[in-house]
From TrEMBL:
This is Dioxygenase. Belongs to the intradiol ring-cleavage dioxygenase family. It comes from the Bacteria. One of its GO terms (molecular function) is dioxygenase activity. Residues 1-31 have a biased composition (Polar residues). It comes from Actinomycetospora lemnae. Its cofactor is Fe(3+). PANTHER family: DIOXYGENASE, PUTATIVE (AFU_ORTHOLOGUE AFUA_2G02910)-RELATED, INTRADIOL RING-CLEAVAGE DIOXYGENASES DOMAIN-CONTAINING PROTEIN-RELATED.
Amino acid sequence: MTTTQPGADQSVSDAVTAGSHATESARSGLSNLRGPGSGEVDQQRVATVVGAALEGIRSAIREHEVTYEEFDAFKRWLIAVSDTGEWPLFLDVYLEHEVEKVAAKRQQGSVGTILGPFWLDEQARLDTPATLPMRDDEPGTPMILAGQVTSTDGTPLAGATVDIWHTDDEGWYSGFAAKPPAGNLRGVVRCDDQGRFEIHTRKPAPYTIPLDGPTGQMTQAAGWSPWRPAHIHLLVAAPGHRTLTSQLFFTGDPYLGNDVASADKPELTLDPQPTGNGDEIRADRDFVLERET
Ligand code: DHB
Ligand code: FE
């Protein structure tokens, strides 16, 4: 598995490549996904939430007697997060899981988890059974992910779509790392009239956050693991239903339970089995969506 620099033809660091693309994606794409929001700012809400966040930092300074040297290093680190475009990476690794848990308290249907910084809009639209766009010699274990999308009352959801994206066998995301071509191992699969889908792909590999950027450097400076267990990202959508944002993990992955993004959940683990067709494996997973209110 590769965790260092991609090809020598790449002149900027992993962190700057992934970070600037993630910043651009966050700027342009996410309002399509999550809706525009009300745009309203409630003064009391700002005072409460921002006040609590600032007080958390002030109390860390008091309790641990933070020095000017450390304060200045913190300033430089924040500037570096901006310069490398790593805000989406940093926020999605260290904070999104808490926001997701707050949202999940009010949700029915299949368990979800964080979106992360690497979703891209406007990927290949495919009909089930579908093979994700991949290179002729795409490395890794051939894998089938199959299942059915239903409503919370059990109705199969014709017109459901499964937007899927994941790393290649070396832990790289297309669109963010230099190596995989645009659109590699990404697609939006349209289910059949029973909400069923069958997606042919490659098993993804565990992933480290970029180690040469400020998020990775801070992680390593603290002695924390920079790894995410191998995972498949999904947005499962159907007309009239809330879109499910989820990820699927793999039994036996060494990084399960120690995910730098704290996004793995026991309900989200797959246990793929050999199909008998070469080294191909298959996992079945159904999704239940709640009706939009
Ligand atoms: C990051 C990477 C991921 O693959 C993910 O799902 C969440 C966060 C990151 O590098 O920030
Ligand atoms: Fe990811």
